[in-house]
TrEMBL record:
This is Integration host factor subunit alpha. It comes from the Bacteria. One of its GO terms (cellular component) is cytosol. Keywords: DNA recombination, DNA-binding, Transcription, Transcription regulation, Translation regulation. It comes from Oligella urethralis DNF00040. CDD domains: IHF_A. Heterodimer of an alpha and a beta chain. One of its GO terms (biological process) is positive regulation of metabolic process. Belongs to the bacterial histone-like protein family. SMART domains: BHL. The keyword NADP does not apply. The gene is ihfA. GO terms for molecular function: DNA binding; structural constituent of chromatin.
Length: 102
């Protein structure tokens, strides 16, 4: 069986799915989606990890400053220290994705 795959899933798509599958009105669905992502952002901004059971973990990682290179000129440029968000899929999600590839 062939399935068509969209290149990405947007917040608008999630809103539409809530509207269609759960039955909340579109305004409520948009508020739920926006609230969900705002909560994840707020927790990460506080410096805490976000764990969503059966899906995965969003974690913060501090990256040290390091030398970099401008690919056009070859000049050395400093890359400053920064904090980045990483995502690690849960074993359950990994298995679901792997099963779809077969």
């Amino acid at each position: 069986m062939t399935t068509s795959v969209k290149p990405s899933l947007t917040k608008a798509d999630l809103t539409e799915l809530l509207y269609d599958r759960v039955g909340v009105n579109k305004r409520e669905a948009k508020d739920i989606v926006d609230g969900f992502f705002a909560q994840i952002s707020d927790v990460l901004i506080e410096g805490k990890a976000v764990r969503i059971s059966g899906f995965g973990n969003f974690q913060l990682r501090d990256k040290a400053a390091r030398p970099g290179r401008n690919p056009k000129t070859g000049d050395l440029i400093p890359i400053s220290a920064r904090r980045v968000v990483t995502f690690h899929a849960s074993q359950k999600l990994k298995e679901l994705v792997e099963d779809c590839a077969d």
